């Protein structure tokens, strides 16, 4: 029974035996005759005792226990040492790797990225650098985690670590209050999903995602979901619930406010502004130009040869193709086309194009007609003047790093002022635009929280005497006091403390507080390292940790102690986000949704310049007067070229032609977009120089710059 070499070496066989030679798992104890299933190892555990999966043998002598325990400990130590040693087959390779230089080490690391399809942005993470440093400090005997270890035990540890981090995050909810962010969307499998996150100034935390396919349009069920989430986060911590302004959310928000009298439901400001842009895009002349621009980009990107030709002319710069989910991507399309205006004109009038096989196609001829059409470019400039300020507001409210509640009210006013200046105060040029803005602002976007945030922002309150006497703003603050402060006693204390803030008494009036009321955002860039080239991106983690932003909640924390109740309310209001789109952006990464984030890393906070009054427009000239060649003494202009090819004047169409064109539109990939008479004066529309950063125009965020297209 014990003739083989392994049994002779293992002392366990001296005190156990096999009752059945054919069954080597059933081992019988010599002392108590107990049969253990699991081989000799389990039998030794039975005799030594104190093992979780075995009962202790009460008849085993102590010296046997000691002998077996010592043997088992030695075997365990040998196994651990063996596991740390490399396989003999890998010794040569390991020695070779240990002797490699820096370049070869980088090759091994980069090869892992390439073969495993790891995004190179992972190298920017601090966690990647920490992992490399941990391996270096451990030494050459580092054993990589196995597939199973990564999937189960290590993952469980990481979940516990993450929960620990989130517990600290939850403490901020009590201090600052928080916003519940809700965003519903449809996945590629046609499931309607709702993602819920909780936002506060420190960070945004994912809570859960639910499949709402069966009740997305039902306001009662939507209300139940929101109400349950408020209960989970705790009503005392929640200041507002932010969602899009679909009809189901509007009604659910009203039900929620009725049941929860100390919080607000707020429509997503980014969604509202996007709807404003969409309404503006429905103006006939703008709609036609946008459609022409989309046809232009579509034609280029649907023909590989044309695309390659364009890239040669634009020096590998791309045009933005409009997205399907958010309308502001159409603005980005228009902007990118305008930036390449000269190169597109040069390409479609070049000898290379004329000789190409595409130039003879009917669709291509319509594209060339569009490129040479003066009113096309004039309307593009009109669109940029109208939409540019609104896109800036959109970027402000869509910024997760800096709460926008204290800025949105002023931002909307500044955007309208910028539009007025862009058209030299000619009301006829923008009155229809303001009507669209005001309708959305009044019925959807303008909320008491926005007004209260404006009054409590020292950056504006102490520099504008009209704020304190403005009925709309004051009423918004009072509404917030009554709703967000649960007890009448605290409400009364806030009303007593409010004049101290308004009169700048106490700590509000000291020189330190006065100097820090207003900190200009452009100063932040002094803290950034220089770029090696203009196309480089800044590391977002560097920006967050090394850049100083004026934080109005910190201002209240530093100087609001003389009004403690008002201080707490101000911090809770000014810490709020205005958008639920951070939720959307996080999940669009995984679902590959057609969403373009307009905030690029190296101009991520330039939306603040709208709040600094830096928007202006210089006098412009008509596109027809632009010279084809800058050094042309004969004065050949693009207007002359347009008239020469027959696109200088709009074509007149019969009703029959219009009807025929409409009926054939579904079967034609490139419908013929006819030119219409301008509904506004074009003589002062087209001039790139009217948008330079020095003149505080659209160029100031790189919108029309030839050197900056990071957000394209």
From TrEMBL:
Organism taxonomic ancestry: Eukaryota, Viridiplantae, Streptophyta, Embryophyta, Tracheophyta
Source superkingdom: Eukaryota
Region called Disordered, residue ranges: 652-712
A Pfam family recorded for this sequence: Dimer_Tnp_hAT
Domain DUF659: 145-293
Gene Ontology molecular function: any one: protein dimerization activity
Biased composition (Acidic residues): 673-688
HAT C-terminal dimerisation domain boundaries: 549-590
Bias-annotated ranges (Polar residues): 693-703
PANTHER family: OS05G0256350 PROTEIN, OSJNBA0013A04.12 PROTEIN
Biased composition range(s): Low complexity: 657-670
Name recorded for this polypeptide: BED-type domain-containing protein
């Amino acid at each position: 029974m014990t003739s083989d070499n392994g049994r002779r070496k293992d002392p366990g066989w001296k005190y156990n035996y096999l009752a059945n030679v054919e069954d080597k798992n059933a081992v019988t104890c010599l002392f108590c005759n107990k049969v253990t299933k699991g081989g000799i190892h389990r039998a030794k555990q039975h005799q030594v005792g104190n093992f979780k999966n075995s009962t202790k043998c009460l008849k085993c002598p102590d010296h046997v226990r000691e002998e077996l325990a010592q043997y088992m400990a030695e075997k365990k130590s040998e196994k651990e040492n063996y596991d740390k040693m490399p396989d003999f087959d890998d010794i040569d390779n390991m020695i070779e790797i240990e002797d490699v230089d820096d370049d070869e080490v980088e090759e091994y690391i980069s090869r892992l990225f390439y073969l495993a399809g790891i995004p190179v942005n992972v190298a920017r993470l601090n966690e990647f650098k920490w992992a490399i440093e941990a391996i270096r400090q451990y030494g050459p005997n580092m054993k990589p985690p196995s597939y199973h270890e990564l999937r189960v035990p290590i993952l469980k540890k990481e979940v516990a670590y993450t929960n620990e981090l989130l517990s600290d995050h939850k403490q901020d909810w009590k201090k600052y209050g928080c916003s519940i962010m809700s965003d519903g969307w449809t996945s590629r499998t046609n499931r309607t999903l709702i993602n819920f996150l909780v936002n506060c100034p420190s960070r945004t935390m994912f809570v859960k995602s639910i499949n709402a396919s069966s009740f997305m349009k039902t306001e009662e069920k939507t209300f139940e979901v929101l109400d349950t989430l408020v209960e989970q986060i705790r009503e005392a911590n929640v200041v507002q619930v932010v969602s899009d302004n679909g009809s189901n959310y509007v009604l659910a928000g009203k039900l929620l406010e009725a049941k929860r009298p100390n919080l607000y439901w707020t429509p997503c400001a980014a969604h509202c502004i996007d709807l404003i842009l969409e309404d503006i895009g429905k103006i006939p002349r703008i709609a036609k130009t946008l459609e022409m621009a989309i046809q232009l980009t579509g034609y280029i990107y649907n023909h590989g040869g044309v695309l390659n030709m364009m890239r040669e002319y634009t020096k590998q710069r791309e045009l933005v193709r409009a997205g399907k989910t958010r309308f502001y991507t159409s603005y980005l399309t228009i902007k990118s086309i305008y930036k390449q205006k000269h190169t597109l004109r040069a390409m479609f009038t070049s000898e290379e194009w004329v000789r190409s096989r595409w130039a003879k196609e009917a669709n291509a001829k319509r594209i060339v007609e569009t490129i040479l059409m003066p009113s096309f470019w004039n309307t593009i400039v009109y669109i940029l003047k109208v939409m540019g300020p609104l896109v800036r507001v959109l970027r402000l409210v869509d910024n997760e790093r800096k709460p926008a509640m204290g800025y949105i009210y002023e931002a909307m006013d500044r955007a309208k002022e910028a539009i007025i200046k862009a058209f030299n105060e000619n009301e006829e040029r923008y009155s229809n635009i303001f009507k669209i803005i005001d309708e959305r602002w009044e019925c959807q976007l303008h909320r008491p929280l926005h007004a209260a945030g404006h009054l409590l922002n020292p950056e504006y309150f102490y520099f504008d005497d009209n704020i304190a006497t403005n009925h709309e703003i004051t009423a918004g603050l009072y509404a917030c006091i009554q709703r967000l402060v649960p007890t009448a006693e605290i409400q009364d204390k806030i009303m007593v403390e409010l004049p101290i803030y308004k009169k700048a008494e106490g700590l509000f009036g000291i020189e330190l507080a006065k100097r820090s009321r207003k900190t200009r955002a452009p100063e932040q860039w002094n803290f950034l390292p220089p770029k090696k080239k203009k196309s480089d991106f800044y590391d977002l983690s560097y920006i967050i940790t090394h850049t100083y932003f004026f934080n109005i909640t910190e201002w209240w924390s530093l100087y609001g102690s003389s009004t403690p109740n008002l201080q707490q309310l101000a911090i809770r209001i000014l810490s709020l986000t205005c958008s639920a789109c951070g939720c959307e952006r996080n999940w669009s990464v995984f679902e590959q949704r057609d969403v373009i984030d307009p905030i690029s890393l190296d101009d991520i906070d330039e939306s603040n310049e709208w709040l600094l009054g830096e928007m202006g427009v210089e006098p412009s000239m008509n596109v027809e007067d632009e010279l084809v060649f800058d050094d042309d003494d004969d004065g050949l202009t693009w207007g002359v070229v347009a008239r020469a090819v027959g696109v200088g004047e709009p074509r007149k169409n019969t009703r029959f032609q219009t009807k025929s064109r409409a009926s054939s539109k579904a079967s034609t990939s490139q419908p013929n977009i006819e030119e219409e008479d301008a509904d506004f004066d074009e003589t002062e529309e087209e001039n790139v120089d009217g948008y330079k950063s020095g003149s505080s125009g659209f160029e100031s965020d790189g919108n029309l710059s030839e050197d900056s297209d990071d957000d394209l």
